[in-house]
Amino acid sequence: MTVNEQPIDPQNSWIAIDGAKITGVVTNAVLKSGFTKYNVTIRAINKHNLHSDTWVEITILGTAPQLFYQYEMTVTEDSSLTQSSQSPGLARQIDMVKRLKQMFTYDIVNVVEYQQMINNKQFNLIWSVCPLPNKCTTEGLSESEKKLIQAGQPTQELITLLQTEYQLNSIQSKDSEACSGPLNPPVPTQDPLEVEVPLCGGFRYQFPSTLFTDEDGDARKLHLWLLTPLGARAGAFHDWLLYIEKDQTIEGVPTYVDGALYNKEKTELKLVATDSTGLTATISFYLTFKMVPQPKYRYQISLSPFNPLKIDDYHTFLNKIGSFGMPELVRKYIGYWSYRTIANGNMIIEFFSCNVTYNPCNLYRLQEIKSEFSDSNNFPTTKFRDHMEPDFNVGLVAGDYEEPCGQSNPPVVIVTPPKQIIYCCGIFQYTIPERTFFDSEQGYTRHLDLSLTSSTFTMTSFTEFSSQSQLLMLIPSASVISDHQSQTFVYQLKATDNTQLFQVTSLTIDILGPYSILHECSIKISMTRLSIASSRTNLQTIQYFIQRLASYFQVTEEEIGVVSYSAQSSSTSVVFIWSYCSSNYRSQAYQTDSSTLKVDYYNLQIKILRLLFDGKRKVQTSFLSVFSSQFSIQNVETQFTGRCRDLPPTPTPGHHEIVIYLSYGGYVTHDYLDNYFYDYEDGDAFSLSLTFLNSQNHTVLIDHWINIDYSLHTIYAIVDDVIRASSSSIFIYYLRATDSASQTAFITITVRRYTTTFVWAPFNITYSLQYTGQSSMVYVRQSHYLINSIIQYFSSITTYVFVLVRGFYQIPGYPQYKTIVFSVARETCSSKVLEKVKTVYSSANGQLDSNLKSSVSQMFTLHRVTYESTCSSNPDPPSPVDPLPDLTVSYCMVFNYNLPSTLFHDTIDGETNHLGLALLDQHGMYVSSSSWFQLNAATMQLYAVAIQSYAQQQSTYTYQIQATNSRGLSNKVSFKARMDGKPFTADCYLSMSFTYKFMTSNVVDIDVLQRFISMVQEYYGRSTSTGKEVKIKMFTRVSNSFNVSWSHCAFQYSSLQLSQQGLTENDRNRITQIFSKYLVTSSTGQISNQIISDFKTFMSSHFTIQSLTASYDCIEEPPVPSIDKLRVFPKFCQLFNESIPITAFHDRRDGNTRNLALTLLDEKGRPVSSDSWLQMDAYQYVYGVVTEDVKKAAPLAGYQYYVQARDSSGRTANISYIVKVASSIKSFDVYFRLGFQSQYGESVPTATLLNTLVQKLSKYIDPDDT
After folding, report:
1. Start and end of every Peptidase S72 domain (predicted)?
2. Does some domain include residue 135?
């Protein structure tokens, strides 16, 4: 025997098999285990040891009771029960229960706990009398206990009951804690409770948890009972009502009559709550049903149930009918009329729809529903029968109706036409569905007279309805939609039968889309109607226009959007305004008419405007006959506003992407055509501003490996070492077109590089050249020209030359110097190309081969040709021959120095001009692009521009020239370059910020500065022949922007001191003349910050000026005293030492007093003599010692001195310095006469000696004297 597939424990099991019986004791522990069903497997074994199993399901009813009183007994068994097949413990429990039950009149003895003692004959038993709820009282305890215990000992009755089998050792009572606390009944929070529930669809209602409060908790902690006033269970009194105790829920499936009677009688029920102590509370409970009008049509279904139906089955029936797919009979709309049992246990259930109008009666729909259930003979349809099985076996389904469903009725609406959602373009046609109306005599919609009206707008403006064909034709008009101020249009659709009875339903049309775009992008056609077209209605005319326009432009009718149409009945003039309606406008994103929605500029221009107008925006001749012989076009004009005021350019079909293929060492060109872009206002690609961008949408620099020559409309691309080293094989660029309104469009340029490699020659060749073409030419076109020139030159000595470009760079040198480094494919050390390069210099005069120079002369001047090769093993580097002198660079000029050809010598390559050259700084690093000193390797020329701000930091710099031979071996020579500060000038500076239009990754700052100086001098020299030289004060670069401060060397002096004195107001007019060549000058001679347009235009070929200012700071003014005089009061027997205040003077250029040179002057304005008692030191302190002689000689008004301040330009200013000595002098009888010799070793003022002597003596006499 097993329980729940687990073998039983004979010592502890609560259940066992005894012969052919299953016996057991349900203890509290079993009840609290949580299991209510137990599967007991029983095995029968025959004498052959063969067996068979069966099982019994045991259900335990109820829950563990509240134990108010318990008794604990210790018992010793006198006779053996082991003969039973049960376990001894279970047999004892069963026997004890049987004996104890004899003590009480009710069969409610409960074993709480059984425990086997060490002695198998002795056991402990805890049990209780299951008391009624009102037994939790002292009387309840006495009633039970007096039969068991008296004076603490077992009663004789109990001993006698047990003595035949057992010896009772002890018994004691155990009180429950539940009886020790306060005993209060539950408290209702609402009485009575009234609840309204639906009649249709059945109901389910759970009593609120807050309905009662009790010490046990809310209502969920209590036992709730639903009873009739007489105490019967409510479910037994009302067969349609069920109370579920565990959920505290009522549910029901009343019939229509049940609901009506219940509401009429207002039947009272009682809800009783019982807590854990057995105390109760009762409230009145009333149900009310939401009634519906009495149904006039009911469905009758006969069933052959397998078992009598319960309330759950009626719920299942509702679910089945509700899920069959009838919208009028979803569960919540199904009401029971009756359910009754007939012969042979069969049932008839009668139900109805709570969602059908019975007056007037829609008999059509009711019978249509019935036809879904059964055929004309009332036999169920296969679909319905299968749907109901296996829960219900359906026999017949009939329909029963009463008046007014049998009377003559007006047409009824079967299905209201669904809302039509259309877009504000094209032509909309809609035929009223056949099953919209039904008339019991005439039939469906086609047999009724239909009419369409609207009370909110004039239909004839864009709607026509044919009663005969029941066809609605609607052409959305942007003007009508705008005037209506809503995208929703509601029509009244009226159906009338032969008896003039009618029914009305609505037809709603939502016209979606951005009709404001159609307004803003409209095209107006003015025309004259010819006689052949006069018979058409307005809508037929508009329809004709749409069809003809769609045909001409090869678009769909939905792509033609009507804005407005006007035609005078008394005139032949017709105006039709329309627009292109993109398929985008019919998408989800464009359902609202938001002003932020984007116009489909591409299709508007490509599909419409490009075919409507020619390049001069004249109407195409072919369009004038678009309306054949029915309308004569007089004028076509665009009415573009808002988002269509300025149309952006757009790529034309087939040109959204250009794909260029490049080999590993290749070079390619691609010509783009005028028709790659189209712009309605400006024209095709060549009329637009084109810009070449990289993948980050930044303009590519002029020296990029792929670029565009806009003058030739050609894309050039050349692979160099940087691109070969790239891990990418696909490069993305964009060609941007910008029209006159700054609107843009893009074409993607995809460059695909093959990864095929070549065998490189063991040498590299370098051309150093000066570019002589236009500055704006992109480098890749220059290098493309060089490649062709190289191939052409070397083709004369070899059959095939494949040039592999290493790099094409801008090198330092003004105006434009370049270098191209290249090799060739499939060549060796015996290459004819290499041998030719070795001989390009004449052995007679050292000049380059004239044919080689002329091969590139259309764009370049070739200065030098060098090479590097691994074909030679000579290990010696070039040797320095002649040292370089120290070089001096002056202002107001561009410095140049040509390196001598004898600077280096190489045993194989020869002199300097055959070597690779580079300029290094004192640390052996290549000079930076911002260096003021550079080397033009092509011309072997050092060049520089002295910059004042550099000279102030460091005037002398150390550089090195590095020479590299063809084996890659190098040597160096050093030299110094110094800015000497000449000529000495006084300068009023102009300051300008600008960008350089031909910025490259290799450009050096000094080349940009040279270009600037050259253009400024050229511009300035157009109006004067003197003073055009330029002195640079400051030149800096931030990213691609430059800042420069310069002056014209117009004020030159013979010495630095004179130049530092600066200029005066007498020079202002001359300075203004210089400034006025760059900045606008007012009639009063005031210089503004407005740049003269002529200067801006002149500089624009190379620079974009951002700002330009001028300063008159060069005009010096003397220091300005802040006070007229200073008074001081030195005292006798005290040292005098006071500083001149820092605020005493101020100078516009030099600043406060501490930045000025101060001198103490006597009353005649001369510097005080060295023997004066008062002096001034270098720290601007006035000091002295007041002696008797000084006091006696003091004027009454005090000593008169002057303090003079001198600025850096030598200009001075004075303030009065009055020294008033104290009037009283102490009388001294004893004097000391001291002779001494100064140890200063030089002539010092007397005041200095006295000041030092007094300090020394004071310290000697009194060390504490300060």
Report:
1. 514-643
2. yes
